[in-house]
Design a protein that fits this description.
Length: about 400
């Protein structure tokens, strides 16, 4: 049985990852009666928002992300001040690639257009700046001086505390088993039933399953990602304290390889492949027919070639999931049929840094406010296969 009308929430947010938490935070800040539902008990490492670190940057090939990142930096700073806890550490971000790589040019053009401090490094300059990166093919570098490291786990804890302090309600260990559209929308979990004027779905890898019964099949691909840490031969040689940068390797494999200086685990550097294998979200840790060995082999080769002061065998391997869209851009939109159901999905492994603004946009959509940004790149309608016959 559904709850009586007196228990009507202004908004229910499904999924307490970074996007859902920031959405609930913005709702609570605007004095909305918000309920945040999470299927697992918090904290957990089953989704896409766990782990200790993420890269933050303003460099993007697309202007719309760079514009959003300007406000993201402000909001991350505001949250850090409110919490009195360090959530961000500056660290340059190095794009490593061949001179003719179109991405290097696109990043450089965007940084120039927006007046963001950056530096182009020739092969010789790159060797001087970062002598413990070995160049194998005469690579050049582009440095985003605004880059840095976000402390992911800390940020989630701070947000969850802030939501409670602002009067929001969080219920973990409650898996959503049914959504009933309508005015109000109704949500049934493994424990209780709730009603709300609006519903925001930020369920990461589980989004597709939640939306299928509502008549929409989003083109979301869930990937299992190996998060690998590599031991420094000399402790500290690739650390932030030694001014070693975060990096993105653009020409080394079919997909990017990225790295974060040692710090999470003493003496271990995070170097990962920005891709993985298809997986059902509830089977992330089960053995699969698809081997992870090729991805790990790409990383071994990269470490051996470019980072000679790391052992070329991962010391620690963890898992997370990406939920990708075909174009790697987010989905920030209302359900095509039920305009009080809002969807935030498909963050494609680069959404964490943008979560403060994503949460603000999802709050605006749920409250029927004019969005702060042009949402054309994020609309569901861009996927041509999703015509009215699919709804």
């Amino acid at each position: 049985m559904m709850t009586p009308q007196k228990d009507l929430w202004d908004a229910i947010v499904i999924g307490a990852g970074i996007q859902g938490c920031f959405t609930a935070y913005h709702l609570a800040k605007h004095r909305k009666r918000v309920l945040l539902l999470e299927q697992f008990f918090l904290p957990h490492s089953r989704g896409s928002s766990h782990g200790q670190s993420r890269i933050i940057r303003k460099a993007y090939a697309e202007d719309f992300y760079t514009q959003m990142m300007d406000e993201c930096y402000q909001l991350w700073g505001q949250l850090q001040r409110e919490a009195g806890t360090q959530l961000h550490r500056p660290a340059e971000l190095l794009f490593l690639g061949m001179k003719e790589n179109p991405e290097i040019k696109a990043f450089q053009d965007t940084l120039t257009r927006h007046g963001i401090e950056h530096q182009y490094l020739s092969s010789e300059e790159l060797k001087q700046h970062f002598p413990n990166i070995r160049l194998t093919r005469g690579e050049v570098g582009l440095v985003d001086k605004t880059g840095g490291i976000l402390y992911a786990d800390k940020a989630l804890r701070v947000l969850q505390n802030a939501i409670r302090q602002l009067g929001g309600t969080m219920c973990d260990g409650e898996k959503v088993v049914e959504i009933r559209p309508g005015q109000p929308a109704a949500v049934k979990t493994t424990s209780k039933s709730y009603q709300a004027k609006s519903l925001i779905i930020t369920a990461g890898p589980w989004t597709k399953d939640l939306l299928s019964p509502l008549g929409i099949e989003l083109p979301l691909q869930v990937l299992r990602i190996n998060v690998c840490y590599w031991k420094e031969k000399v402790p500290g040689s690739y650390s932030v304290s030694q001014a070693f940068p975060c990096f993105l390797g653009l020409d080394v494999a079919p997909h990017h390889v990225y790295g974060i200086p040692s710090g999470e685990y003493p003496g271990l550097m995070k170097v990962c492949y920005h891709h993985g294998n298809n997986v059902a979200p509830d089977e992330r840790d089960c053995p699969t027919a698809f081997s992870d060995i090729p991805d790990i082999q790409i990383l071994r080769q990269f470490v051996r070639d470019y980072l000679p002061d790391l052992n070329p065998e991962p010391d620690i391997m963890e898992r997370c999931m990406y939920t990708n869209t075909p174009d790697k851009h987010f989905i920030l939109d209302r359900h095509p049929k039920y305009d009080n159901i809002v969807i935030g999905a498909g963050f494609s492994g680069h959404g964490f840094k943008l979560a403060p603004v994503v949460g603000k946009i999802l709050y605006e959509l749920s409250m029927k406010l004019t969005p702060s940004y042009d949402l054309t790149p994020f609309r569901i309608s861009r996927f041509s296969g999703l015509d009215k016959a699919h709804l």
